[in-house]
Target: Glycoside hydrolase family protein 5
Amino acid sequence: MIKMKVILAFLVIFGVHSIDAFLTIRNNSFYYGEDRVFLSGANIAWINFAEDFGSGGYAKVRSSYESAIDDISSHGGNVIRVWLHADGRWSPKWDKDGFATGEDTQSLIDDLGLMLDYAASKNVFVFITLWTLEGTPKPMMHLYYQEDRLQSYLDRVLKPLVVALRDKKALAGWDLVNEPMGSISQTQVDPNPCYDTTHLKDSGAGWAGKTIDFRLVLKLINWHADAIKSVVPEALLSNAENGELLTTNVCEKCRDHYTDECLIGAGGRANGTIDFYAMHSYTWEGRFAPTSPFLHNFDFYKSKKPILMQEFSTTITESHNASWNYRHIYEGDYVGIMSWQYNQWGKWVDTKESMFEGMGAIRNLTSHGKINIKL
Model:
């Protein structure tokens, strides 16, 4: 009897998850329970940039998210990606010295919980992107430079959020920082190749206009990943990067900066690593880079971790054929494909018709993973 009480106490404190309660990785593939799955869908990203969740934000956009989830589900999709804090202008809440107060943590939990529950009811997974560096993130920039402020965010916001949402079946994983390449210099010299960026010369890196020492970016990612893993070890983590130059070693200008060694070396926290690569691939002047996933299968990269095609747009691909693009990534042994983006805002975006065509073309396939899944 005493032994049983101890076991029950352990279950209450630490939680137990049935094997089908969350996405896992085996053999460089995603699994849900015993089924290999392939994620097919689109980015929603945001309705009101950076302000969709927390402090009453979701009430203003809930119907838009639910409508988008309905659309994507009904056209054969099973995944969306949304942005949470983005540049930090709305959440988390800061005090006058830049410390996260945690006052909006419960509202973030409530809002994301509503969205995740609705997505689960439609059999749609969700990736949550925390921050972005494709533009200069002024409201949260201090987190890259001030460790005590960063730690306040991890302790008062991120850890409670991750714990509270850990049993949400729709939560596929956490995407830590979107496109760091936008805020990285092309001329940073460092004796450690993890932090040297001179290989990016003439690559377009640093388009946001203000650059951050790459070591600090990798440190922030390492601390975030370690914080999440410390409370929910099974959480799947990635970092969204623009192209192959910072995530692979397959070309002269390519260097994988997101290896376990680079991330742990930058931040010093042993569990602060990512589980898969989230890659973005767009054409330049109508052509893909020679190392683009749309020109190769997964095995070309000799990667030890899965690759998710997290952003692309058929509108500017070489083939202009959504069915071919979705099928190529599916048959190429990647773990998923997500069009940019459902709201059709910006210059490199797909039409809804195009993304739905792509999702529909592969919705019933099973040879490289099931798409029609039940959460």
